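The instructor's notes for this session suggest beginning with a concrete chain rather than abstract definitions. Hand out the sequence below and ask the class to guess, before any prediction is shown, which regions might be ordered.
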Amino acid sequence: MKLGFIGVGNMAQAIIEGLLKAQALTPGTILVHGGHAAHFQPYAEAHGLQVAPDNATVGANCEVVILAVKPTLAASVCDEIAEGVQAHRPLVVSLMAGISLEKLATLLGDAALPLVRLMPNLNVAIDAGMTAYALNQVAAAQAQQVIDLFSPLGGLTELPEADFATFGALAGSAPAFVYLFIDALARAGVKHGLTKQAATEIVAQMLAGSGQMVLASDESPFDLIDKVSSPGGTTVAGILAMEANGFSTATVAGVDATIAKDQAGA
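After discussion, reveal the predicted structure:
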């Protein structure tokens, strides 16, 4: 199978590197083109990828075409590839935020094309990502192909398009919230005598393990909190202090602000 990328920015690179790391594809089966050769050509050469002379070549020569460009470029890119994809009929996968499957079909001029909306996060680069996808009716028959292609990158879940903004907040933006939390915990460790490097490593490994524990357990996160908390103990004191300072409220407010910005057309 040949996989084509139109646009080779951060997210496209994360997917490419994740697929290569998982050995799901070989470099020679990936064809790329983007807006700036000075940007994508060295990247393609460094990873052994094939380079297309233009976007139309990608659309006409790949079984799966991934549109990884800014939404503002959707109309022009779709116009360039429309003839090729209508003739070749690849699975077209869009990473473009805010462009619905219905809108994408209109831009490509063919409602009978199999289309997928994909929303991954940057952790796909290390095969530990979380990705949401939605299929149009035509692509429903190819759902297993989508699952087989992208599940090596980490978690994968099918969601209605209406839920993409919420998913984007929880999986796309929230890693930044987690990095902020890691840094805050590490700074607390520095306050109490640890080096920043040691404190950061301790916290990052703790969070990685805690996430795995939640995924492996049938219990809710709050049930797991109870397992860590002894009556009258240090953990309870810490949780009460964090809640008194607005930890949960601030977290929900951050998600609300992220969704509101997305829905306003960030």
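Then share the key points. The mean pLDDT is 96. The CA atoms of residues 228 and 235 lie 7 Å apart.
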